[in-house]
Design goal:
The chain is of the alpha+beta class. The chain is built from seven helices and five strands; from the N terminus they run βαββααβααααβ. It is elongated and about 65 Å long.
């Protein structure tokens, strides 16, 4: 019998900039492991383990297990989570068309995410945005876990 994964734990681990780390889920134990860029460099280097501190030797061993075992599945938001499209859907769902127009303008050009958050805050919608974003992340992660036959609990 496989372990049950916490949907919330996986979502929290994934909710970091995609380019900075990779998240793995162990399909048997439910353990979530984040591999940072620094971890990846450690794996790529020809490292003399005798020169590493004990904690880093332990981490290197864990990283090797995570990246080579078939029990660990790599989860990536890069292809599936389109935050820009989510902002567009959030804006389209707003009843106040004046506010929607201001938010739509905010996401044009450079700095779209920052401008969107600033405008959402200005109009008292930032909490609504974060809730919408959280729900979208949870749906994506739940779908991925189901597709990979991993049982999970919801918060």
């Amino acid at each position: 019998m496989s372990a049950v994964v916490s949907l919330q734990e996986v979502v929290e681990e994934l909710d970091v900039p995609v380019s900075e780390c990779s998240t793995y889920v162990n399909r048997k134990t439910g353990v979530v492991v984040v591999v940072t860029e620094e971890d990846s460099m450690l794996l790529d280097d020809d490292v003399d383990e005798k020169e590493l501190p004990e904690w880093q030797v332990e981490r290197l061993s864990e990283l090797r297990e995570v990246t080579t075992s078939e029990d660990y599945l790599l989860f990536s938001l890069q292809d599936d989570f389109e935050e820009y499209r989510l902002m567009e859907r959030f804006i389209a769902a707003l009843e106040d068309r004046d506010v929607a127009t201001k938010l739509q303008r905010a996401i044009q050009g450079r700095g779209a995410f920052r401008h969107f958050k600033d405008a959402a805050r200005e109009h008292g919608l930032l909490d609504d945005w974060f809730e919408c974003r959280q729900q979208a992340l949870e749906e994506l992660v739940a779908e991925w876990l189901e597709e990979n036959g991993i049982e999970f609990t919801r918060p």
